Request: fold
Amino acid sequence: MRIIAVILSLLFVVSPLQGLWFPGKGWLDEQFNMVKLQANCSAETTPNGIPIFTKPEKILALYQLMKDIHDVFTHYKVTYWVDSGTLLGAVRHQGVIPWDDDLDICIDKSSVETIYDIAPIFEQLGYEVIKLWGIFLRIQKKGDYNTFADLISTEQRECNIYFARFLPSYVYRALYGDWGVVGYRDGDEIFYTKDELYPLKEYKFGNFIVMGPQNPTKYLESMYGKDFLEVAYQWHAHQDGQFVKPKKVKMHLTEKDMVPAQPVGPMRDRVAALATLLP
Reply:
């Protein structure tokens, strides 16, 4: 019992928001649904009729959050680029992946203090900036903690750009297994070369633009496989727990699956409305 208590305490220190997580009904329902999924199904629904596409109301909130972050960061000259599923959506769908439920954004670790400084601007827009374990910040919608963008700090090591280290990677692996490292490339932690990342370029994302890597192909192949343009994998939603590995289901994308997620309404140009108040 003493050993178990020490492990739980260590998890709480490293990850105060995740350390005491226990699976809830939502997560159990999700796992039950995932067991029903059959390989090679469309992403819109499974052969059992289980819907996978994220609700349009949630999609609208994600697009609005991404637009607000882009506009604020552009105003304050904070360099960012979309990453992981958000980058995949920008490249493959030209918008949010229809079954995605969060945003992934990279920043240089030197920008962290600037983001804390401009946190009041995000508060005026109805968001809050919080620090998560390790290398993450999060911008999340007040009163709706399932609508968020994870901001991943990065750093340059020699000529490559990696996720910034908070603890040695072997510590993450010891605590969380493969979930402790976001991805791998050529036997190393996932990285971009400088020439692949810079100069950043614009990507169409719904009805606005976001910033992304100059050449993301090798990065996306390392993260999602060489067939990332034709094949997708259904994982789990973020409503419950994050460090529990779910069932992974392969889906060959249909033409309808390739259409970007459609929001229930239009984006609002909210940052421009704050222009007179921005320093």
Remarks:
- The chain has a mean pLDDT of 79.
- The chain has one domain: 26-277.
